[in-house]
Design a protein that fits this description.
The chain is built from 5 helices and 12 strands. With 228 residues, it is an alpha+beta fold. The strands form 3 sheets. A 5-stranded antiparallel beta sheet has the order 1-2-11-12-3, with helices on one face. The protein is globular. The structure holds FE2/S2 (inorganic) cluster.
């Protein structure tokens, strides 16, 4: 899913936008922008235009992960801090980073058609490091050298080898200056919206409401009533 955001009106506060007509794409744009605007590393002047490419569907796998020995990538119910991971990523290139925590290895790739995709770089088989091989397959692939596991670069799904589940995904946003940000994660079987709702719902019910998250309206109403 690619989200393109238009600049806010001159002099306006972008957080004032409230797409009450609840187009999920519009709501997602606003929510993602607000996530970034809350980050102290950037200023609101930077939010002229955001193109977000979101790769959804997170899986958690591997014996160590399943047994709770290893940290679960993206296993957070709280709002995650946006993190700038690259000044830009060119087609065919990848960037290794850590998200949401320093022990969470992740990789971002830019496909030849411009799509950005972010994943956990921890193999769902036995937690080896997953590598980007841009010259394999029709548009590159994510490869685990330990047991020849292969993941689809566009979806994170397993295409070969023993990994039992798709790679967990990292939600990426590209700012107008080309910088790439990690803003959230999704669990296995979750859509991007579901992942954001889970991470925003408790702590930022207003944003969750704008995303159309289940039960968010009640939480948002409660939050507004507390302010009055
Ligand atoms: Fe990746 Fe076995 S650890 S395929």
């Amino acid at each position: 899913m690619s989200l393109t955001e238009q600049p806010p009106g001159h002099g306006s506060d972008p957080t004032d936008a409230h797409p009450t007509d609840a187009d999920p794409a519009d709501a997602a744009q606003v929510a993602l922008r607000d996530r970034i605007s809350a980050d102290s590393l950037t200023t609101r002047r930077d939010y002229l235009r955001i193109v977000a490419t979101v790769s959804g569907g997170l899986a958690v796998g591997g014996i160590g992960v399943a047994s709770g020995i290893l940290h679960r990538h993206g296993d957070s119910d709280g709002a995650l801090e946006p993190k700038r991971i690259a000044d830009r990523i060119l087609p065919g290139d990848s960037v290794a980073f850590r998200y949401p925590d320093e022990e969470d290895r992740a990789v971002a790739v830019r496909l030849q058609d411009g799509t950005l995709a972010g994943y956990s770089a921890v193999c769902t088989h036995l937690a080896c490091a997953v590598l980007w091989r841009k010259d394999r397959g029709s548009e590159g692939e994510l490869y685990c050298p330990c047991h020849e596991g292969v993941f689809d670069a566009r979806t994170g799904e397993v295409t070969a080898g023993p990994p039992p589940r798709a790679l967990p995904k990292v939600i990426l946003v590209e700012d107008d200056d080309g910088s790439v940000w990690a803003v959230g994660t999704t669990r296995s079987g979750e859509s991007t919206q579901e992942g954001l709702c889970r991470q925003l719902g408790q702590e930022r019910p207003g944003l969750a409401e704008r995303l159309g998250c289940p039960d968010a309206s009640a939480r948002g109403a409660l939050e507004r009533s507390r302010r009055t």
